[in-house]
Q: What sequence folds into this?
């Protein structure tokens, strides 16, 4: 921690893995029991709109990491305001956005991997998620101008969950 406050690294790097770890834990804890015990397949065959059920599950899965991220970000800025001036807060927030987006892509990737019925596709999704999420952790200054592209990637992964859920329902 001393090195962060000495200036050799940005102080916000302490939190860069928090969104990804939180999303990974929530995704695994939400989808692993459902898929392993085949309860989600039963849920998707209920006489109710399956996409609505799936959207509800994904909405919960997105809102849980979002709540944790908001709490962590709030605590970060309370502590940050003690040491740094207000312009530093905006710079730190802008630098944390790719890490937060990486957390959501991680959640959607875990959901896609968990619901995919074909093991070959699961492996391919895992490799794809790894390489895509790895790009979110590049030098933060190089990511500042492409945040809309990162948001687009996140939206594509959220739609990928619907695709794999449909494949899971079919079998």
A:
């Amino acid at each position: 921690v001393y090195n962060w406050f000495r200036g050799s690294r940005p102080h916000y790097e302490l939190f860069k893995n928090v969104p990804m770890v939180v999303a990974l834990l929530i995704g695994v804890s939400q989808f692993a029991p459902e898929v392993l015990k085949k309860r989600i397949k039963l849920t998707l065959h209920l006489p109710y709109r399956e996409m609505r059920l799936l959207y509800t599950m994904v909405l919960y899965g997105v809102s849980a990491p979002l709540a944790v991220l908001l709490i962590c970000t709030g605590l970060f800025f309370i502590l940050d305001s003690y040491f740094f001036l207000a312009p530093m807060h905006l710079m730190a927030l802008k630098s944390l956005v790719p890490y937060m987006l990486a957390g959501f892509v991680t959640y959607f990737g875990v959901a896609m991997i968990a619901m995919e019925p074909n093991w070959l596709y699961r492996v391919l999704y895992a490799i794809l998620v790894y390489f895509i999420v790895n790009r979110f952790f590049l030098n933060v200054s190089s990511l500042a101008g492409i945040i809309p592209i990162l948001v687009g990637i996140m939206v594509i992964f959220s739609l990928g969950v619907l695709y794999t859920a449909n494949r899971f329902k079919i079998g």
Notes: The chain has eight helices and no strands. The two ends are 49 Å apart (CA to CA). The CA atoms of residues 47 and 73 lie 41 Å apart.
